[in-house]
Each structure stands twice: as structure tokens, then as C-alpha cells.
Design a protein that fits this description.
single chain; alpha/beta; Rossmann fold; Cobalt-precorrin-4 Transmethylase, domain 1; Methyltransferase, Cobalt-precorrin-4 Transmethylase, Domain 2; 3 domains; 5-stranded parallel sheet; 12 helices; 19 strands; elongated
Length: about 425
């Protein structure tokens, strides 16, 4: 049997009787697979390995401790042989064939009436791979497919789903008493600092599943181009990006969009830059969804507070230089943070108020020669690093035209950066 004469299908074995003949490692794996499908499993073998014994002692299968008998096929829908004895497996397969019961003969795949594929599962997607009777080849292919599914390389978006009658009417009024969540859900996905390679596998997978993507202006924008046009099966993209002084949507409007789209039965990905729970208002969005009965998953991202300094070769902690760090937005909270060069301060969204931030830190005693780095558009081809001292960084930033998005790092850890001009008179990097 070459595989050309196979008819691939999936069996619903929930509650149906199945038989495994054999007690070794292969039999245990096949029995576990049948149990995972909800089958009632009887295993026949005079002796069995630890895995079979464990399943039997847990009451998950019935172990008949003897040699196979033809009567064991009574009431069975599916059979798996795995005795390691070809003559026994052949007898079981012949008996099953005579009773029109599908049987996988582990000892002779060429004459077997059915084959067991290598199986990959991601959420509710199951991929089964047959490879000409070569199990190692099938496993290698299955593993490659599984990786592609988990990394979002393959489209996971649903194109058929049942939406209960009245869902469209309810979706129009997400705050109404009659509104209720349908099949939809929301995922708050941290996109990292902008490089698609720094996004988590789970985030990529959810993007591949999404019906709707609610996108910030920061984060891995290049991934949106890979999603495809909605007319060709890609998700709808709703832009809600915020820039200083120019908000596409208010936070209340964003919250309402998430709930509305979920009520319409959609898988909604809220794609945010960095991490949704690090100065990203993800907590507010999650709370709003839950208050309205919408299921929410939170996928952490590589926060810009750590990753963007790393793009400039700056660790936020470094032995002998800094043992802790604080993250702020460059606003009033600076007055409460440690003002020492050995405690790193990372400012997000702080360019506009850089002068005020410097003034606060100087007033609290932080020395004017403390190193400062500004990393613009970290992890993108347009990345630029500007390094100076606390008492000169404002003029330097103005001179080079520093602009958001940028991360500001203040403290002795800036000395570690390969961009640090150690020989520049304006920045002494020696203690």
C-alpha cells in the first residue's frame, strides 16, 4: 500500500469501544491516543509495561491479562495491534477484517487496513500526517507543521462558525442588558518593541487565528502586512493608534470596539506595542472585557523598557553599576524614584517632557555628569542612539531632533553601551 489508496478521515470514537492488543510502549501510546479521543479502551495482553499499568490502575482502561481471543472483538469499532509478534498481529487483523472492523496492524503497515498518522494539535486544529508508512518521516513533517502553526506561519483563522440567532442585533448594543458574548473572545497581545522576530510564538499564533486586529501604531507593524487583505481571507484591521496629541481613538472607544467585535462572534487580537501590562493600559481593557462577559487572554510581550535599551547595548542592571531599575513615563512619578546613578531610570514616552524630567532629577541630587541615552525607534532599521550627560542631554536632543517613539535611559549602565563616546569630553565614562 503506497498511500495513494488511502482515504484520509477522522473518526469520532467518543464513548465507542476500542481494542488494543499488546502491552508495550507502542500499545500504551496508542491506548492514550484513543483515550484522548474519548474512546472506551480495552487492552488485552498477558503482561504490560509501566505506562499501561498506570492507565489501568487509574481506571482509564480495562486491562484483560491474557492472550488475545477472537471474542475480544465483540462490540468493538476500532482495533490497534501492537504485540511485537507478527503472527499474533496478523491473526487480530484477519479477525477484524472478517468482521468489517477497522484495524491498524503495527507489524505490517503494507497490508494494514488502516494507518495511524503522526498528529499535531494546536487549539481545535488537528493535522494528521501519513508519509508512505515511514513513521519517522511522518513525525518530522508533523513537527514542522506544528512549529508553523505555533509561530503563525500557517493561517489559523476560522471561516465557518455558528453565530446564534440574534447575535448581530445584540452586537450592535454591547452595553445593553440583552447583549451577551457569543463565540467571540479577545486576546491582548504584546507585540514587543517592533521587530517581528521578538514577538512571542503565542502572539503570532493568535494573529493567524484573528478575525479582527485592533492595532496600535507601535509594535510589529510589519506583521499586519503579512495578514492579507480581508477580501482574500485576511482579518479586518482597526487602527486605534495613539501619538502624543493625536489619538485615533480614546481608551473608552477602544474598550467598546473590543467588546462589540467579540459580541459579533469574532476572535479579536488587540495588538499592542511592548507588553500590554507595562504602561499599556492592558489592565483596563481586560477589566472592561470581563465586566461585559467577554473571555480575555493576555499574552505578555517583550517590554520596550528593557528591550529597547538592549538594542543599544545597555543592560538595565549590571554588576558593579546598577542592581535595580525603575520604569516611568517621564511625568510626576520621577519625584518618588531613587535619584542615584546606580539605580537605572527608564523613561517611556518621555521626549516631550525631557527638560522637566531632567530638572526634577537634578533637583533631587542626581549629578549632572550622570550618563543618559536616548534610543529612538529601537529594533528598527531607523534606530538611532544619542548619548550625553544629564546636564547636556536636553540641548543634545534638541540639536539632533530626537522624537518619539524613544526610550530614555538614565544611569551608570549607559557606560556599557558600545555607542557610548568614552573619549568625548562631554561624557566621562570613568569613575
Amino acid at each position: 500500500m503506497s498511500g495513494i489508496d488511502l482515504y484520509p478521515t477522522s473518526l469520532r470514537l467518543l464513548g465507542r469501544g476500542t481494542l488494543v492488543v499488546g502491552g508495550g510502549a507502542v500499545a500504551a501510546r496508542r491506548a492514550q491516543g484513543l483515550l484522548d479521543a474519548g474512546a472506551k479502551v480495552t487492552l488485552v495482553a498477558p503482561e504490560a509495561g509501566h505506562d499501561v499499568v498506570r492507565l489501568a490502575e487509574a481506571g482509564l482502561l480495562t486491562w484483560v491479562r491474557r492472550e488475545y481471543e477472537t471474542g475480544d472483538l465483540e462490540g468493538v469499532w476500532f482495533v490497534q495491534t501492537a504485540t511485537g509478534r507478527p503472527e499474533v498481529d496478523a491473526r487480530v487483523a484477519a479477525d477484524a477484517e472478517g468482521r468489517r472492523i477497522w484495524c491498524v496492524n503495527a507489524a505490517d503497515h503494507e497490508s494494514s487496513a488502516a494507518w495511524t498518522p503522526a498528529v499535531a494539535r494546536v487549539d481545535d486544529v488537528t493535522v494528521a500526517v501519513n508519509a508512505g508508512g515511514d513513521p519517522r518521516r511522518a513525525k518530522a513533517l508533523k513537527d514542522a507543521i506544528l512549529l508553523a502553526l505555533r509561530t503563525g506561519k500557517l493561517p489559523l483563522r476560522r471561516h465557518r462558525r455558528a453565530v446564534p440567532e440574534g447575535a448581530a442585533h445584540d452586537a450592535a448594543r454591547p452595553g445593553s442588558a440583552s447583549a451577551s458574548p457569543r463565540a467571540g473572545r479577545v486576546a491582548l497581545v504584546g507585540g514587543g518593541p517592533g521587530d517581528p522576530g521578538l514577538m512571542t510564538l503565542r502572539g503570532r499564533q493568535l494573529l493567524a487565528e484573528a478575525d479582527v486586529v485592533v492595532a496600535d501604531r507601535l509594535g510589529p507593524r510589519g506583521l499586519l502586512d503579512e495578514l492579507g487583505d480581508p477580501a482574500a481571507g485576511g482579518p479586518r484591521v482597526i487602527e486605534v493608534g495613539k501619538a502624543p496629541g493625536a489619538h485615533t481613538a480614546t481608551q473608552d472607544e477602544i474598550n467598546a470596539v473590543l467588546v462589540r467585535e467579540a459580541f459579533a462572534g469574532n476572535v479579536v487580537v488587540r495588538l499592542k506595542g511592548g507588553d500590554p501590562y507595562v504602561l499599556g493600559r492592558g489592565g483596563e481593557e481586560a477589566a472592561f472585557c470581563r465586566e461585559h462577559g467577554v473571555d480575555v487572554e493576555v499574552v505578555p510581550g517583550v517590554t520596550s523598557a528593557v528591550s529597547v535599551p538592549a538594542a543599544a547595548g545597555i543592560p538595565v542592571t549590571h554588576r558593579g553599576l546598577a542592581t535595580g531599575f525603575s520604569v516611568a513615563t517621564g511625568h510626576d512619578e520621577l519625584a518618588e524614584l531613587p535619584a542615584r546613578p546606580d539605580h537605572t531610570i527608564v523613561l517611556l514616552m518621555g521626549v516631550r517632557r525631557l527638560a522637566e524630567s531632567v530638572a526634577v532629577l537634578r533637583s533631587r541630587g542626581l549629578a549632572g555628569h550622570t550618563p543618559v541615552a536616548i534610543v529612538e525607534r529601537g529594533w528598527t532599521p531607523e534606530q538611532r542612539v544619542t548619548i550625553s550627560t544629564l546636564d547636556r542631554i536636553v540641548n543634545r536632543a534638541h540639536a539632533v531632533g530626537v522624537a518619539n517613539p524613544a526610550v530614555i535611559v538614565i544611569g551608570d549602565v549607559v557606560r556599557v553601551s558600545p555607542y557610548a563616546p568614552s573619549d568625548a569630553p562631554s561624557l566621562s565614562l570613568t569613575r
